[in-house]
Amino acid sequence: MRKHGGIIIITFSLILALSCAIYYQEDIIIANLMFWMISLPLFISGLIIRTSKYEFKHRGKRWVSIYIFFFFILPLLIYLQANYDDFKRHTFVDEHFIVYEPASGILGDLSLGVFIILIALFACRFLNPELKRNRLLNIMIIGTIILLIGFNYLMFSDYRGIHEEKGLVSSNWKGEKHIIPYEEIDSVYVEPYVHYAGLSNTTDETRFVWKVTFQPSNQKNKVVYHFPMMLESNLEQTIEIKRIAMENDIPFIIEKMSQKTLKWFDFDLELEGLDKERYYELFQVNNK
Question: Which of 54, 67, 127, 212 has the fewest CB atoms within 10 Å, counting from its CB?
C-alpha cells in the first residue's frame, strides 16, 4: 500500500512538472514557483514513500537530477532560445515579410549547433550525477553558455527573407543589408522532391519537401529557400511567392512531379488533413 501511494504521488508530480514545462511560454515565474515549491517536493516525497529514506539517500540523487534536467533545465533552455528568436524576429520583421529565416547563411546556423552542444553537456551533467570530473564538465557548460551568448549577440543582425515590396532581403552579422528587387529576378523555380530518412538518424523520416530557387538576372548566385515539411504555413508561403511572381511578371516554373514524389505528396496532404484541390493547383498536379 505504501509503494502504491508513492507511485501515485510520483505520477501526480510528473503531470504537474510537465504542465510547468508547457506553461513556461505563458508565465515563467509561476511555472518555476510551481516546479520548485510543489512539483519537485512531491516527487522527492513520492520517492521516499515508495522506497525508503535510506534508499533515497543512496539512489535518489540520480532520479532528482534526471527530473530537474527534463522538467527545468531543458524547458528553460528552449524558453530562452525561443525568446531570443522571437525578439530578433520582432526587431527586423514587419507584416510585409512572406518568408523569414533567422540566419542568412551557414555561419548563422552555427548558433543552433552550439545550442545543441549546450543541451548535450547539461544532459551529461544531470543524467549522470555520479560521473567523475564534474568540475571539468561544469567549466565546459559555463564556457559554452558564454560562447552561445556572445555568438547570438554577434549574429543578432544576421537574417534573410522574402519581402512583399522590397524583394529578397538579407543582412549579415555586421548589419550590412543586401536587397535584390523583383525587377532583377529572371525566374522562380519550384522543385518538389522526396526527402528520404537517413539510416543513421532515428528521428528523421521520409517526406515530401520542396525548394524555391530565385534566379537573379545580373548575378550568378541563385537564392534558394527550402521548405522541409508539409505544413500549411509553408504551402501558403509558396502561394504568396507565386502571387508576387505573377504580379511582377516573373516566370513561375514548377518542376513536374514523378509518380513517387506525387505519392508522397498525396500521403502527406492526407496526413496533415490539407486541402488537396488548393495545393494540387499550386504544384500544377492534374487531379483527374
Answer: 54
